[in-house]
Design a protein that fits this description.
Layout lengths: L2 E2 L2 H4 L8 E7 L4 H16 L5 E6 L4 H6 L7 E6 L2 E7 L4 H17 L1
Parallel strand pairs: 1-3, 2-3
Antiparallel strand pairs: 2-4, 4-5
């Protein structure tokens, strides 16, 4: 299950992992709701390899602003605990899998 995080927990979300993906979403966002099943499936597939978390932008506006989230859904990818990339918009599961496979290769090469 994807870990929901809020402001108090956010600083620790990427600790202890090589690769963390944080989903920035809102309840009113249709594409976010379409993205969730793909992310849940990937969370299961990459169990132990990639950590997944989700952050409600409406409840955590300061964090969304800090990461310059202007459109959702948006994914922020953390490598070794630091934000490295942002992926904006809806993407099918197959495209996200291909992207994450490449990120795993990169993070192990670091």
């Amino acid at each position: 299950m994807i870990e929901p995080v809020n402001g108090a927990e956010f600083d620790k979300v990427a600790e202890g992992t090589d690769l963390t993906v944080v989903d920035f979403w809102a309840d009113w966002c249709g594409p976010c709701k379409m993205q969730t099943p793909a992310l849940e499936a990937l969370d299961e597939e990459y169990d132990g390899k990639i950590k997944f978390a989700s952050l409600d932008v409406d409840a955590n506006k300061a964090i969304a602003e800090h990461f310059e989230i202007m459109s959702i859904p948006a994914l922020v990818v953390f490598k070794h605990g630091k934000p490295a990339e942002k992926v904006v918009g809806f993407h099918p599961q197959s495209a996200l899998k291909k992207y994450l496979d490449q990120k795993l290769v990169e993070v192990t090469a670091d």
